[in-house]
Amino acid sequence: MRKLNGETRVYIQDSADVGHVELAVREMVTTLQLEGREKNQIIMAVVELAQNYVQQARRGEIVLLPRQGGGIVGIDIRVREK
Questions:
Q1: Where do the DSSP E strands lie in 1-82?
Q2: The whole model's pTM is what?
Q3: Which candidate, 80, 81, 82, 75, places its Cα nearest to that of 24?
Q4: CA-to-CA distance for 42 and 7, rounded, in angstroms?
Q5: 44 with 35: CB under 8 angstroms?
Q6: How many Å apart are CA 5 and CA 71, to the nearest integer?
Q7: Contact 70, 31 (CB under 8 A)
Q8: How far apart are CA 35 and CA 12, in angstroms?
């Protein structure tokens, strides 16, 4: 896991790396002060994305970027194939 300019990048190539993605997104939603259902839904969605990516593409990188402004709080999620 690497952090640079506010974004978090997690390299994924197998199911063990999905745990690293989960830790990164948990840390980010906590930093954004998301709670309850919203927090859990974001974590589950990102973990499922990572699991599907590992099954289909094998190797890549998930990039998480926190977003806040205009009353909206969330996370931009990008997946890059390597």
A1: 2-4, 7-12, 60-69, 72-81
A2: 0.89
A3: 75
A4: 16
A5: no
A6: 22
A7: no
A8: 26
- What is the number of structural domains in the chain? 1
DSSP SS3 for 5: coil
| Residues 61, 11 contacting (CB under 8 angstroms) | yes
For residue 74, what is the domain's CATH number?
3.30.565.10
Q: Give one word for 5, left, alpha or beta, with left for phi > 0 and alpha for psi -120 to 50.
A: left
32 contacts 24 by C-beta, under 8 angstroms: no
pLDDT in tens, 30-70: 999 999 999 999 999 999 999 999 998 878 999 999 998 88
% of the chain residues with pLDDT over 70: 100
- The answer to whether the CB of 9 falls within 8 A of the CB of 61 is yes
| Token pair belonging to 50 | 């990572």
| Domain that includes residue 54, residue range | 2-81
